[in-house]
């Protein structure tokens, strides 16, 4: 190959590497953001599960089947 062809190939490869590095950096940032969002969602889910459990406990304490009137009354 001629020197000019080699230089062009080298420039093309350098350009591709630069583009790939930029893409990798963008994907890295996106993964970090999604990881943060996922951690937030997990915390919210745990809070909601705790609240649901509390509500279920309160409902079971508040309602005693012996005290309730049958539906036909």
From TrEMBL:
Belongs to the SlyX family. Gene3D superfamilies: 1.20.5.300. Residues 53-73 are annotated as: Disordered. PANTHER family: PROTEIN SLYX (PTHR36508). Keywords: Coiled coil, Methyltransferase, Transferase. It holds the Pfam family SlyX. InterPro entries: SlyX (IPR007236). This is Protein SlyX homolog. GO terms for biological process: methylation. One of its GO terms (molecular function) is methyltransferase activity. Residues 3-44 form a coiled coil. It comes from the Bacteria.
């Amino acid at each position: 190959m001629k020197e000019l062809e080699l230089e062009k190939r080298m420039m093309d490869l350098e350009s591709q590497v630069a583009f790939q590095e930029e893409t990798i950096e963008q994907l890295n940032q996106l993964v970090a953001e999604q990881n943060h969002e996922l951690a937030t969602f997990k915390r919210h889910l745990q809070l909601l599960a705790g609240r649901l459990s509390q509500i279920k406990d309160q409902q079971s304490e508040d309602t005693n089947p012996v005290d309730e009137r049958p539906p036909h009354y």
